[in-house]
Amino acid sequence: MKKIKRFSLLLLAFLIFFVSTAQVAEANTAYRTFTEDGYGRYVETQTAYTVRETIVKFGDELFSQAQDMKVGSDGLIYVADTGHGRILVGTRTGDFVRSFGEEELSRPTGIFLSHDDKVYVADEAKAEVYVFSLDGELLQIFGRPESILFGETANFMPQKVAVDQRDNIYIISRGNSNGIIQINANTGQFLGYFSPNQTAVTPLTIFRRAIFTDEQLSRMIDIVPPTSTNLNLDERGLVYSVSQGERVESLRKLNVAGQNILETRVSDDFPVSVAIGSLDNIFVGSEDGFIYEYTSEGNLLFVFGGQDDGRQRVGLFRRLSAIAVDQEDRIYGLDQDRNQIQIYQPTEFADLVHQALKLYQDGDYEASKEPWEEVIRLNSLFDFAYLGLGEAYFKEEQYEDALVAFRQAKDQEGYSDAYWEVRNVWMRENIITVIFIFVGLYVLGKILKYVERKKGYWQKLSSYLKDNYRTKFFEDVYLIKNMIRHPIDTYYSIQHEKKGSLYSASFWLFILYALFIIDKYFTGFIFSYVRDGEYTLGMDTIIFFAAMSLVIGSNYLITTINDGEGKFGHIFIGFIYALAPYFIFKPFIILASNFLTLNEAYLLSLANVIVYAWVAVLLFVMIKEMNGYTVRETFKIIFLTLFMMLITVLFIFIVYILIVQMFQFITAVFNEGVYRIENR
């Protein structure tokens, strides 16, 4: 018995060691893998791809500044060996197959394998596109288009090339901002420019155009859209392009009409390559060595890799120039500076995500739920799995389950669609009850009004309280209701009849603060702009009371120096009471936000616009009536108040910067003194 127990313990220890060793081996990659949560933040996840092979040469043939690469359907790797002016062909194990183009090419920078087994090569130095057979036989050469539509001064320096199944050639030319050049491969005819990038116009540029003369504008550098960096095509003929720059669509998925059907921006300013996987997943490589994987709809699945710091670590790049994906979803990354190719293999976790995604895209929603749930079990922060699970539930009309999944995924649009269906079901089942409740409340209200009119119970109670208790505070608080129908009379009562008080105004100020917090954190999920679990009550409190002090204080100071008749107490009470529409209607708007969907978003927007416009009118009337101003003078006071608020904020900011710099100076002097004392 003891031998059996000892053997069991040894076996258990061996299994723990084996599993932990395997996990450490996978976790100890030189890079980390991230995904994107529902709020667009990067969160770390399990390793999705690991490097299985590294190719530094094909046989005895080395690369030199290679700038592009493609993988054929036969698994062979075609490399545009830019530095040697040739095309190298090899296997995944690094065996040399052949090379060609040494006599024709000078500086090949782009390569593409067409559907009819041809190799298209863009040569930037010779300004031509060459067409070879797979064996390296030169078949055709395309030079600068002769069509007048191309433009006499337009550049033709081919960098990248792609070909669709209709034999249309797409060429990216350095310095040609008109768009992607299209040439028919059969006739050589110039077809036109395809989908140019949009010009990035900053607000400063718009301002300059508005005030500068024609002569001044002519001296400015022309604003031209950036040229695309790379492109690729899928089997359906959709064009994928990447572009570099801050104000440009970095990743585009273009239909036949040249319209971008992808609402995704790569969070990297230097994308250099794009490839398409077996699931129509989009892979984007950046110059810094990061590789991004997106779904066909633009949802980020994984980002991994990175820039090597000189230690030659596996999985990192010094300068990534191209990526390619084979039929088994292995990713090939070409390092231009290190002259090598790294081949990434999907891990079990990535395969599980891809399996669930494939089942969902194929319409097998029931089968896709199990792998999605397994992904969530392995990583509860993988929000895209919740999104896939929610969409699967929604397609199967399991709306309540979809509601929960979309909530976990932080997907407001999906949550809105699911809630719409859940609400419709509830309304169908309870519409009669709801009608009876409203009718009952209406009848009850009529009865209470009738009883009050006949018996006067409320009036008697009010008179009793006034005669026996001090109720001025409650009367002052209740005075705010008069702001809805008689705002001018109410302001007069506050200023001349001593109605309202600092205590009642302070009470409503506290209510305003409470509504501000409730609006921020308890607005319905569909309309909320606050992330789950994110509470900043301390900062909210500081901002709220600082803003109120700034507005009221600035207005009082401006009215004081402009012969205003209102005292500080009057201004403070009047300002708070002018928010009466907010106090009365905002709670209902917040409550309604928990029961409406995106289809009714306009109702919330309209309600908020009405409330804020109403408050603005009451504030205008308050400033005018309490200070005895004309309408024109009131506008002047409001403008001066806003200007003073701006100056105050700038002054506080400058003082803050000076204080920070002073502390930094004192800290630096202290550290220097300590250093000198220690080194005597």
Automatic annotation (TrEMBL):
Signal peptide: 1-24
Pfam families tied to this protein: NHL
SMART domains hit by this protein: TPR
UniProt keyword annotation of Nucleotide-binding present: no
PROSITE patterns, A to Z: TPR
Keyword annotations from UniProtKB, A to Z: Membrane, Repeat, Signal, TPR repeat, Transmembrane, Transmembrane helix
Membrane-crossing residue ranges in chain numbering: 431-451, 507-530, 542-559, 571-596, 602-623, 635-659
TPR repeats, residue ranges: 383-416
Highest taxon in the source lineage: Bacteria
The keyword Repeat belongs to this UniProt entry's keyword annotation: yes
InterPro entries documented for this protein: 6-blade_b-propeller_TolB-like (IPR011042), NHL_repeat (IPR001258), TPR-like_helical_dom_sf (IPR011990), TPR_rpt (IPR019734), TRIM-NHL_E3_ligases (IPR050952)
Protein name (database record): Yip1 domain-containing protein
Organism: Amphibacillus indicireducens
